[in-house]
Amino acid sequence: MLFLLVIVSAVVVVAAGIVAARAAGPSALRLLRWAALAAAAIAAVLLAPAAVRDAGWFAAVLLGVPVALAAVPVIWDLTGGRAAATVNWLAAVLALCWAALLALGIGMALLPAAMLQLAAAAATSAAPQPAKAGRAD
């Protein structure tokens, strides 16, 4: 049942990301990326004390994985790197896998950040690409 819920919500989030990209443009993409980073950071900060008490400091370090995965597309966007869609999709899929891996424990708290990353990846892929300069057909 949880797997079905994750699949359905992923489809809804991807559709929302595509609509956001078409309607609002680049500002929506940045907002989705920053929102994913904020959601991952807030979840990690809130879960870290309980994780440290339960399993030691290394469990808190593992909570940094979704934060790092959410930070990669933000940093990539800030540096103006190419192939942003590839970076976004890779980070989103890895974050979703990480949340699913931890789903029986704290993974559900990481799911909103993963879903926001998924929406950002879909929006990046759906956004119109700027025309290449240099050659007119």
Can you describe what's shown?
With 137 residues, the protein is mainly α. It is 82% helix and 0% strand. It has six helices and no strands. It has helices spanning 2-24, 26-55, 57-62, 64-79, 84-101, 107-126. The protein is globular, with a radius of gyration of 16 Å. The protein starts with a helix and ends in an 11-residue tail after the last helix. 30% of the residues are buried. The mean pLDDT is 79.
Task: Give a quick precis of the structure.
The chain has six helices and no strands.
Please state the structural category. mainly alpha
Query: Can you summarize the main beta sheet?
Result: none
- Give the N-terminus to C-terminus distance in angstroms: 53 Å
- Rg from alpha-carbon coordinates: 16 Å
Mean pLDDT: 79
Query: Strand share of the residues?
Result: under 5%
Shape: globular
Helix content: over 70%
H/E element order: HHHHHH
**Uncertain parts:** none
Q: How many individual β-strands?
A: 0
Number of helical regions: 6
Helices, strands, pairings?
Layout: H1 2-24, H2 26-55, H3 57-62, H4 64-79, H5 84-101, H6 107-126
